[in-house]
What does this fold into?
Amino acid sequence: MSSEPEILYPAIFVFSMLLIGLVLTMWEFSRIQKAARDKDNRQHPVDGQNAKAVDAGVRKVSSF
It folds into this structure.
């Protein structure tokens, strides 16, 4: 039969690789969501500094 360390050490290694993969996957998805949010804000500025910049760049047609 196998002794406990022969099974335990590879199991610890595999589990640590699994955790590293999980953390990297979560980090990548958060980067993708942030990039999509930034792209959406550039295309459709709603409030804050983006709206002021868009208003400043729009030429006024009338003086109303």
